[in-house]
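Dear Dr. V.,

Thank you for agreeing to look over these. As mentioned in my earlier message, I'm a first-year student in the group and I'm still getting used to reading structure tokens, so any feedback on how I've presented them would be very welcome. I ran two proteins. I've put each sequence directly above its structure. The first is here:
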Amino acid sequence: MNKTIIRRTITFLLAGVFLTGCTTTTDPAKSSTRAKPLQLSDAALPDLKRFDIAVVKPFDTSNAKNTDPSVGVKLAEDIARRLKHDFGPLFTKIEVGNPGGATNELVITGEITKYAPGDKAMRGLLIGLGAASFNGNLQLKDGDQRLVQIPFDKLWAWGGALGMSRGIEDMEAETAASAANTIARQKGWTPPAKK
């Protein structure tokens, strides 16, 4: 009797880890069109309708302790990819790199201030152990003039199977989805109606 209960419990837990660990872009937090947009609590976001070109510069990682610059490049590439493919023809041109200085060019960049991957195995043991954090800000610019700076702050510290089901890569994807959604809305894109 005890062995049967133990086997069922272990099977249930393993199935839970497997199923929650295999999410795809149908997850609302990772899907750009269904992501929650970034918000400012004290100011309105700028209207971006006048911009035809978007250049996404790699995010600065110099203030994030022990963080490789490739993290900032990857985030920029993910935002650009989402803007190109998820919202229709918002911009005539979207690229990753340095701005060209055109008058109708939106510069998308930002800073990663904390990048802590944590440890999934430690989170599996106890809530709070091995917590993952991904913090920083999204900056939208017209040339060198900053239009807005919007913070993002992600923390994953749950314990057990739930804690092991997500990692820093999920937080990066959610941030890119939210950033792209924010930009698309300010450019004039309308989110789909909720079912």
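The second protein is here, in the same arrangement:
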Amino acid sequence: MSPRVHWYIIAALASLTVGLQALGFPHCIIYVSLLSSAIGLGTHVNFESLAKKYISEGRLAGTSTKVLGRSGVKHSFAFSVSGEDGEVQVVADTALSVSEVDEVKVLGFYAKVYDVKPKAAILCVSPKLSPGASELAKQYGLHVIEQERPRELIPMLATTIDKILGAS
């Protein structure tokens, strides 16, 4: 999908938001804003190119992956990288918001990470974590990437993963 088409969709969603608010649905702006951010991020396509990069290096990588936790529950992650032995090395998720991302997102991500036990976990956030969420992420040992422009999270994620995998 071209950038022009993305903007047309975002504009249509903005119009829909105004209409729904006029009809008495005040909270719809949050959902529409998140959807337009996800469209602007182009998550699926960008993560696929990132997966190809790690696959070419002999690793197992994928987008929208399900990883079996020690509890027997399958957890969904936006992106994951495993070694040839199948051991999960890195998992990543996104948390997009119109304002600061709160502690609830960090807690949810950590619960999945705790069960899966990867070598590293990265939360890609736009625009940024709240101070409380940031402190919680530090306490849990999560890597956090913050960027006001969601589209720039993908190259930042690649750089972070490269550093992590280079150190392992």
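From my reading of the second output: The chain has two domains: 3-41, 43-167. The mean pLDDT is 82. Does that match how you would interpret it?

Kind regards,
E.
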